[in-house]
Amino acid sequence: MDLSFGPEYDTFRSEVVTFLANNADKAPQGNDLRGQAAKDWQKLLIENGYTCRTIPKKFGGYGAEPDIIKSRIIAEEFSKVRVHSGLGGQGISMLVPTLLEMGTQEQKEQFIRPTIMGEMVWCQGYSEPGAGSDLAALSTAAVLDGDEWVINGQKIWTSTAHIADWIFCLVRSEPDAPKHKGISFLLFDMKTPGIEVRPLVDMTGHANFNETFFTDVRVPKHQIVGERGQGWQVANAILGHERETLAPANTAQTRINALVDLMKSETADGARLIDNPVYRDRLMKLQSKVMAMRFNELRVLSARLNPGQDPGLSRMITKLEGTELRHDLEGLAIDVMGEIGLAYEDNPYLRGSGSWQREYMFYLGLIIGGGTSQIQKNIISERGLGMPREPKFEKAS
Amino acid sequence: MQFGLSEEQILLRDNVNRFLDDNSPLDRVRLYADGGDDADIWAGLAELGVPALLVPEEQGGIGLSPLDAAIVAECLGAHIAPTPFLGTAVMAPTALVASGGDHDELLAGIAAGTQRVGVAFSEAIKRRNDARVEVRGERMFGKSLFAFDAEADSYLVADQHKHLHLISASDPGLKRTHLTTVDKTRRTVELTYDNVEAQCISTDSSVFDATLDIGRVAIAADTLGAAQSMLDQAVEYAKQREQFNRPIGSFQAVKHMCAEMAAQLEPCRSMVWFAGHALAELPDEGRITACHTKAHLAEVAQFVAKTATEVHGGMGFTDLVGLHYWFKRCGANRQWLGAPEFVRQEAAVLQGIVSD
Fold first, then answer.
1. Which of A96, A236, B53, B68 has the fewest CB atoms within 10 Å, measured from its CB?
2. How many domains does chain B have?
């Protein structure tokens, strides 16, 4: 057991701390992360290697060797002072790593730089009304006509489709192949004729997602990542990574600290909420869980750093446990505030800028999205515990 | 950075597990539950150095760390082994060493496996019923409930001021009455003190705290082992047992129960490791981590014990498969050295977010 990262990393951590002390005031505030301030901040972060660290310099990144300890230190320090840690979105988190792994030289040159600079916003066209948990059953058709793919079908849960410049999209290009082998991974401009985006208002009252319809959308043949029929492997090259990062323990720690502060400052009948033994015990129970998840994450990190160390099921359970924990944590804040916990939008009694209700609902969305809790349980039991798969239904004769 | 067990620790774990596989199978535990003794098991563990783990080398021990003790505790819990490990090998050496006094002879006896030291801490944690320990001069009066390691040679007793005293099991003023509990894998006693000679070894509450903390982490580790074993048994059963022409483990209703157990239990392993490590290396975090680990393992194990029994269907309820021994071990661990609600309250006090 050795929890120190060593002197090199202590120096690195103090550099990050100094950077934040000197520059945090330039970080964008609030939720407008598409504006100029956010782009300027992104540029500054890339120049200092605090985001897009490992993306090669020739594609606009910082060009550092992968170093998961440094990445972790950056995440920890930004989270501690609650400063925006750079642009996210599915273009940066999913498409760029995919292109680096599977893209052609031309694709890397054309797309990576504008994407990480926030000039090119992407949306992800994966799920369909008939292909949710069973994503490989997707049916949006791509038929080659001369030098162009002609696309017809519908996607759903396409977050940011209404503001996206481009889409990376899974389509069925080989209708006669087995379902996992008939999919291709295409990139195309959202301004292409035949695309219609309809906002899908969710329980938070906002349209975070969309339904996206394709009618005879024509896409140049070469805008494919990987080969025809390889789309499933291309998409899966990074899907597991997405799951692990949905609910990291350091943000859960930040939130539970905020919850402790809230319960110290809020009162009921003049008494601090923290002094109510029932509420306090619920808080302490969650603190136990956050602590367990923090140490679980240390084990995940350690298994990455030390090949040969058995991670057990520590990686496989993070999405399930992390998202459920956050939902419970935000929910406790609402419970302890009583009617004030219901405050939303312009209510003058709003606490934490409405974040408790927003995150409570948002994390319910994440319990479902990115592989539902039930799918996670299938993965844990079948791949983790070696339990038998559900027998396939025989086709009715 | 390396968060996990060292090669030596993995070797220790494998050695203890191998010994217990051979020498403490369920049939052997049943003999103890029916009134037999644990002498051969403890003697075998002594050959592996288990009682000497926390005794410093100068006193004939091995001088290992709380994390090593937690590793052994996990093995013992997994095998529901009847041993005096918690009191004799974990809490007593910690108290004796932390007290700073000269206890060389007793420590050497513990290390050799020839001296057993029981623990009576209940009254200093939460006093129940009419139990009370009073010490006047060097004489002890009153009574303790649910002292563990019933067949000990001496007892480490905490009074309500968190002072620690040693008493001899052969003192004529001491009466030991066996207290039957649901957990038949370890025995507890009522100790009544009528003018018993008490050797005060510490009036420093930090010695009491250190002893309690390591005891709690060891119990949490024992719980981890017991709960993991229940999960493993449930998964194995669900793979073998067939109904409706298929293994019941292929039904999502069953496999999701197993996934939920695994998902809750897996972070517990990291938590126990960290808690063991923190006791020796991270003084600022040691106490609060010990509290949370004790409480959290109790909660997760309660869920696992119930769910793993359900996965076994009617067989889980019988004595035939003996799963109930693990169920009851988890249940006893939950109450020993502080039930979860009280331990969480201590965690809150330790953080200063509420006053005592």
1. A236
2. 3
